[in-house]
Amino acid sequence: MRAPRSVVVVFIFALCSCGLKTKDGRKSEPSPFGPTGIPPELRAKKDNPGGTAVAPGGNMGPAAAISKLTPESEIVFTNPDDPDAEIPELSKLLAEAQSRRGPWETSESIAKRRALREGKPLLIWFTDTAQSPMCRALSQELFSTPDFEKWAGEKLVRLRIDANVKIDDESLGLDEKESLRIRMQNHVANLKKQYRVLGHPSVLMLGPGGETIGRYRGYKSGEADYLWGQIKHAEAVAADTRGQWRADLEAKGYREWKDRSGRGVFAKLTGYANGSLTLIEPDGTRSRTREDRLSDGDRTWIAEQKKLRGM
Fold first, then answer.
1. CATH no. of 254-308
2. pTM recorded for the entire structure
3. Which entry of 105, 189, 248, 297 is 20 to 30 Å from 269 by CA?
């Protein structure tokens, strides 16, 4: 329920007319590694297409990639299953974000939200643990190794989509398990169609705007270092893309907010009333909090904004 108009004071952050310069139109020097930007030692062999690393924004320019962000006019501000639900408390959302079930997420929505909040690219692994020996080899030779685990834990958010759907919930009856299994199989099929995945294993690297930075299909035993090199290259490209993506949103009023425990979220302030704030993240997730629950830096920033507006 909205608060009375007379009670709410809304901060409106105008986009500076000067804007940020983009790279469009600039003459760039040709890459010493060719159009893919991949060093020769990391390129695929003729008998193994491997993957293709692309420029920031996938097949789109950087500006087009940023425009793929959900427009505010299309954001659903309420839970469609519970339109009257209250906006969640920020501290609760941040606490949930810190709880980890494992190195690989299994929910696309959770993985994407983590990638946005943590400022990391998203690595998606389409696998079939039951039918594909190449998937098992990829897991053993790279994804399950301590070195990769340490590096990926610092650099990436990881999502695993397994075609081998299992339902282990003992509280469900046989009919319920079968119904859930079918729904999950359909969901996996839709994700494969969405990301244009034709076989297993397939690995994708997504940038901050959801654009495909790298796509790697297939795997041969013994080529873990080669694939890891490609993934590292894509992570570096994604990091460059994120800088421009973040700068564009900062010009529109988004900033890093932190609570008293130092946990942060990149969001825009959309409403303020009597010390209560409403924030919205780039993916449309809204949360609420109180001014006294924020960091000293955020409280100083709010005080400055009040002073500028004569409040």
1. 2.30.30.700
2. 0.63
3. 105
